[in-house]
Amino acid sequence: MQIMEQDVNKDTLPFWIADMDFSCPPAMLAAIKDRADRLIMGYSMADGEYHEAICNWMERRFSWNINSEDIFISSGVVPAIKDLILTLTNQGDGVIIQRPVYYPFSAIINLTRRTLVNNALVNSDGRYSIDFQDLEQKAKDPVNTMMLLCSPHNPVGRVWTDEELQRIGNICLENGVILVSDEIHFDLLRTGANHTPVARLFPGQNSIITCTAPTKTFNAAGLQISNIIIKNKAFQKKWKQHLGPELPSPLALAATKAAYNEGEEWLEQLLVYLDDNLAFMDRYLKNKLPEVQFVIPQGTYLAWLDFSTYGYNDRELGRILIKEANVLLEGGTMFGPEGSGFQRINIACPKTVLEQGLKRIVAALHR
Length: 367
Ligand SMILES: Cc1ncc(COP(=O)(O)O)c(C=O)c1O
Known about the structure:
- Strand 3, helix 4 (104-111) and strand 4 (115-118) form a beta-alpha-beta unit.
- The protein is α/β, with parallel strands linked by helices.
- Helix content is 39%, strand content 15%.
- The two termini are 26 Å apart.
- The chain folds into 2 domains: 13-23 and 265-365, Aspartate Aminotransferase, domain 1, CATH 3.90.1150.10; 26-262, 3-Layer(aba) Sandwich (Aspartate Aminotransferase, domain 2), CATH 3.40.640.
- The relative contact order is 0.17.
- Pyridoxal-5'-phosphate (PLP) binds at residues 18, 76-78, 102, 150, 154, 182, 184, 213, 215, 221, 226.
């Protein structure tokens, strides 16, 4: 935080970037230590056991049957999205996104000189939905060749229903739009919520690509590994030509295998804790800051708080939070102009820390 942000000090409470304050599953850490004990850190490749661990996870958690040959390892979902755009679209092509959305989507589209096409989400009292008519119109334009779906959605927290996913998939497939579904938050669901990988709904189709990773689920972003599921043989060929052989970190390979094979109980406990933190924040805000609008997200550990009734502009709100409350959140406009008036807060921390942060926010706003 101190490297990235100027306005922080040693007492600033971090609720910003999407990682957690919790230690990784013990089995994952043990696997890293075991691997280190083998003393050599040479070039490494994924073996059959690695692929099996991933296929089993997808089957167990999402009833999704995938083939080992369709798994491609990348150093992250963000680099993978960049590589997919570079290999499967041309300069000037339009790429559809749904703002407010995870900001690297826009950054990558701009960086790769594609055209950002926004199918803005519709906000009705904090509940977000998709403007399908607008999506269809944009998908019909032959210049728009790819859509980046965020599922579950960061920052609005929606877990898309099967019906919504079916409609998105149909619109893309009928119009020759490649659907890249970023499902990195797929394990982080509220009790009772179900995530469906959109590709599972279209078993006979192969122009849907799914970006997955163990890193968000198991708090291991620094290990830099993700698994991209590409079924289309022509896409696979382009990906391989563009990226060459896969040589992931041996520590990341060991950690992924252990997390998927032995981390399920840890995840179940984490989900209960996250549910509880969100319920706590909901009560707290309703009591102490009823002007802030907040709907418990169906997925992710990120909450999207609407401060707009306070009437501050975004810069002023940001200043109050960092300078007066001494908490670091993510300003809503990072996710697009549609995020004006909002702040994203990461609740994956001990409840005591969350409570302290909320107290500081309440005090600063009531000053
Ligand atoms: C929707 C989404 N995609 C991708 C990432 C980052 O992925 P990676 O670290 O694998 O590049 C994040 C991190 O917060 C995210 O929220």
